[in-house]
Design a protein that fits this description.
single chain; about 290 residues; mainly beta; 6-stranded mixed sheet; 4-stranded mixed sheet
Length: about 290
């Protein structure tokens, strides 16, 4: 279709829009707005086994528990010839399945190794027509913020303090129902690398600034015990993320100390990611002005 034809088709779609639900759970009716006088409309579904649509009334119904995208076509039958208009709609539950992956770290790695009692960012693939995701956690695991249902494809989960093998699940939801993603196996054995980064973070809650520094470092510099100890002399980088996973602040330490200005951030719960050469740690932060 050439550029001129594309523009003409777009103009037709705008002049005669197909109205009706964008999501069909069981049934719905479609009409053509501004139908020209002296014409009749013929309706067709691109998948009659998934969505039946009455060719004359536009009344549609879901069939065979179908889940997926369907194109409906309205053909305007006029004396000068037929003109067809289309609209894509979703039928049934979200499109999650075995190829919808969960991960932490690198996508596609399953199983993963974690440290007991550590917090990680877990992710799920974006699912077509999902409006939210519900994470089903193993015993002893918890979500930062408390709610296991989120509109984001990322969530912060703290692992169990108990060593063992666990399975994490996730459901994608919309108004019609839910569908399951693939599962993720977690070897919670302390072999995930790193461990707590030896830093103190204060105050918490914080209002104007946040201090991150070596836990053995006083106000006048490094203590004698930290000199020559590689665990304590590593510098670090930080990211401060909000509950939607957006990076709000970044910074690098100098002599294992960083003062982070946060007076421009709104009140709420945040995650502080601390990364050294050998370790990564997460801290829960509350900002309250």
């Amino acid at each position: 279709m050439g550029y001129g034809k594309v523009n003409a088709f777009k103009a037709l779609q705008e002049a005669f829009p197909i109205t009706g639900p964008s999501l069909i759970c069981s049934s719905g009716t479609y009409t053509l707005l501004n139908q020209p006088a002296g014409t009749n409309i013929t309706w067709i579904s691109s998948n009659p086994n998934g969505l039946n649509i009455n060719p004359t009334t536009g009344a549609a119904s879901r069939l065979n528990n179908f889940n997926g995208e369907i194109t409906i076509t309205a053909t305007i039958n006029a004396a000068c010839g037929p003109t067809s208009l289309t609209r894509n709609i979703w039928v049934g539950n979200p499109g999650a399945g075995i190829n919808t992956l969960l991960w932490t770290g690198t996508r596609g790695v399953n199983p993963v190794s974690t440290n007991p009692g550590a917090t990680y960012i877990f992710n799920v693939d974006q699912v077509p027509n999902a409006t939210s995701y519900t994470w089903v956690l193993p015993s002893g695991f918890s979500v930062y913020g408390g709610s296991t249902t989120t509109t984001s494809t990322s969530i912060y989960i703290t692992t169990s303090m108990t060593i063992g093998t666990y399975t994490l699940y996730c459901r994608a939801n919309n108004a019609c129902g839910s569908s399951w993603t693939n599962s993720l196996t977690i070897n919670n054995s302390g072999s995930g690398g790193g461990g707590p980064v030896p830093l103190v973070v204060y105050p918490n809650p914080a209002s104007s600034s946040l201090i991150i520094q070596d836990e053995s470092k006083g106000s006048e510099g490094f203590s004698e015990s930290s000199v020559g100890n590689p665990e304590y002399v590593e510098e670090f980088e930080i990211q401060l993320l909000d509950n939607n996973g957006r990076i709000r602040k970044t910074g690098k330490s100098l002599k294992r100390r960083l003062e982070l200005k946060i007076d421009d951030l709104p009140d709420g719960q945040y995650i502080l990611e601390i990364r050294t050469v050998t370790k990564t740690d997460f801290r829960h932060i509350i900002i309250k002005h």
